[in-house]
């Protein structure tokens, strides 16, 4: 995918706001690992929103020598070179690695709320979220399917929340699923020309605004094998997907398809588009997780602020062990910095 800053504008001096995520998961581990490699990798400055005492305990568990600085967001950038800046929320976390407790949900939720507020009020340039455990949040009464829907609520204006779109990005491939965390049966029921068009519009606008692609190339998959084989393997591609593509083209969006999903993701095919828009979750996520499992980034388009996240979960089984790979978080931090620079150009 071609990602660039249109004018080469200098990156914003504002740091990135990094959420705590699930305290019992690997979010704290990969955050500490990323900060320790800040000079080696020339990472953008960031601060973690959470409980400094909890992080100090996790660092001891991991045998890591990390200096912490409890600061306000305005002072985080200056502290970053010599200490991991931590901005408190007032919520303490007590969970042990791999063992979420009653502190997990409120600590995670408060961190997200503060990160969004900091970005919207100009203290940070972007939100980067560590993984949450939805099952833990649900037990505490969390009313949203996941991070993305919660972020949309926090971004609401005049009582109306924006429609967020999940994009998985890597240097080799960017994908967007039109339907997301629903069963395959429900995905087919939800799929409509209107939903495809709305999703693709948000993708095109997001790639323009945040990736510097003035006219991004979108490749839309078919729903059925062989994109329906001219109707012999299902009518949805002719009746739902093709009309959406025709609408997008009339609007000046470079969209093509419906394309057979089994031939969209080899190396030569990937060079012909900037983002693959797929009809359901696994159709989009299997190829990118095969190609870029360690360094894929989850990006939320359609919000009035930048949000990126590692493309993996909480990994309770290895939390606190020192085996967590920070590559996806590092990629998410770098992409957030790049998107902030593109928007500033």
Structural class: alpha/beta
CATH topology heading of the largest domain: Isopropylmalate Dehydrogenase
Helix segment tally: 13
Biggest sheet, in brief?
12 strands, mixed
Residue share in helix: 40-55%
Rg for CA atoms: 20 Å
Give the overall average pLDDT: 93
Q: List segments where confidence is low: pLDDT < 50 over at least 5 consecutive residues.
A: 1-12
**Approximately what portion of the residues adopt beta-strand conformation?**
5-15%
End-to-end C-alpha gap: 19 Å
Question: What is the CATH-assigned architecture of the largest domain?
Answer: 3-Layer(aba) Sandwich
Q: For the largest sheet, list the strands in their spatial order.
A: 3-4-2-1-5-12-11-6-7-10-8-9
Number of strands: 12
Large-scale geometry: elongated
Task: Note the run of SSEs as H and E.
Answer: EHHEHEHEHEHHEEHHEHEHEHEEH
Query: CATH class of the largest domain, please?
Result: Alpha Beta
Overall domain count? 2
CATH H-level superfamily title of the largest domain: Isopropylmalate Dehydrogenase
